[in-house]
Specification:
Elements lengths: L10 E5 L4 H12 L3 E6 L2 H7 L5 E5 L17 E4 L17 H16 L12 E7 L25 H20 L2 E7 L1 E3 L6 H10 L15 E3 H13 L7 E3 L8 H11 L11 H18 L7 H8 L7 H7 L7 H14 L17
Parallel strand pairs: 1-2, 1-4, 2-3, 4-5, 5-6, 6-9, 7-8
GO molecular function, one term: aldehyde dehydrogenase (NAD+) activity
Protein name: NAD-dependent epimerase/dehydratase
Pfam family, one: Epimerase
């Protein structure tokens, strides 16, 4: 992915830079000799990630408009990735109130303070908002065919509604300011080292905490982090991306049963001849949902979580491939054995897997 020479994007501001996708994007931009500014509430975290001084750190909080007054000075390109990340113990992941205040209202706060006039020494030229397939809604991804960007969005969670609102705010700002605005929607992201849903599933299967999954042929899309970064930079640099929304996937579909079997094989374990009946999983999930409501904390299995594991979330990146020439380079077929080998080389801490609740991992 790396290429020599200065970036054609000018001085770049990245929000959400300390998140999993944001970190990978900043690292690649630095590899490309770009001038990078990050917006963060935690300058200490940014300094730990990039201690060599190659990244300019600007402190601000999307939820506090007054802290963003000078954040856009001298910026030509904005990569907006920031969104609300629920606490590890926060129930109802996709309907946490913070999604609206940070993702929707926070995006409006940021846009209201950006300098598109050139007063900061450079004129803001482009914005790329990194969003999610949840902005389209789960029903769109369960139509029996791969959903594309032109399907009318029907977000059914506060997370999806906040993301869609932020997308529309970005396009409105671009139209009014006369700058290039684009959106890239992500499904589940893998290739995040020891983070993400696939890693947690591997750990659960390895420890005997993930039951033999029923043979439900659901279809879900996913994408490798390197393909995400390639897609982000392709959209940002392409002259035909203005005003467009794209989905990025690895071009394949996966069922939970298929992932379960590939994990078992990669671990060197036989595939069980039996599976847990779906009705039994649903009953356990109902108990978990009730417990979550009563106790006010996240439970291992809920009805919402089960619907994600058993339902479809099938999306197409055909527009990105046909229109901009995007070609994914990774798949879960090769990634799962690689992850298993890495986990074998570096055992998990004794306290168990980290429960990273960021929606970047789908």
């Amino acid at each position: 992915m790396t290429q020599a020479g200065a970036s054609p994007l000018g001085k770049i501001l990245v929000t959400g830079a300390t998140g999993r996708v944001g970190r990978a994007l900043v690292d690649e931009l630095l590899n490309r000799s770009a001038s990078v500014v990050v917006l963060t509430r935690s300058p200490e975290a940014a300094q730990r990630l990039w201690p060599d001084g190659r990244v300019e750190i600007r402190v601000g909080d999307l939820a506090d408009r007054d802290t963003l007054a000078t954040v856009g000075e001298g910026i030509q390109t904005l990569f907006h990735l920031a969104s609300y990340a629920p606490r590890p113990d926060e129930p109802d992941l996709y309907n946490a109130p913070g999604h609206w205040s940070v993702t929707a209202e926070g995006t409006r706060n940021l846009l209201s303070q950006l300098d598109a006039s050139g007063l900061g020494g450079a004129r803001l030229e482009r914005i790329l908002y990194v969003s999610t397939i949840k902005a389209m809604g789960d029903k769109i991804g369960a139509m029996g065919r791969p959903a594309d960007e032109d399907a009318p969005p029907e977000p059914d969670t506060l997370y999806g509604q906040a993301k869609l609102t932020a997308e529309r705010a970005v396009f409105d700002f671009g139209d009014k300011a006369g700058i290039t605005a684009s959106v890239l929607r992500l499904p589940m992201v893998y290739g995040l080292g020891r983070e993400g849903n696939i890693v947690r599933m591997i750990e659960a299967v390895a420890r005997g905490r993930f039951p033999p999954w029923p043979r439900i042929e659901n279809r879900r899309s996913a994408v490798h982090i390197e393909d995400v970064i390639a897609g982000i930079l392709l959209v940002a640099e392409h002259p035909n991306s203005a005003g467009e929304t794209y989905c990025v996937t690895d071009g394949r579909t996966y069922s939970t049963r298929w992932i379960y079997e590939r994990i078992r094989l990669a671990l060197g374990r036989p595939i069980p001849a039996w599976s847990v009946p779906f009705w039994m999983l649903k009953a356990a999930a109902a108990v978990g949902s009730a417990g979550e409501r009563l106790l006010g904390r996240r439970m291992p299995l809920t009805l919402d979580g089960l619907s994600k594991l058993a339902g479809d979330a099938w999306y197409s990146s055909g527009k990105l491939e046909r229109g901009l020439g995007f070609t994914p380079k990774h798949s879960l077929e090769s990634e799962i054995p690689l992850l298993v080998r890495r986990m074998a080389d570096r055992p998990s801490p004794g306290h168990g897997p980290r429960h990273d609740r960021s929606a970047d991992s789908g």
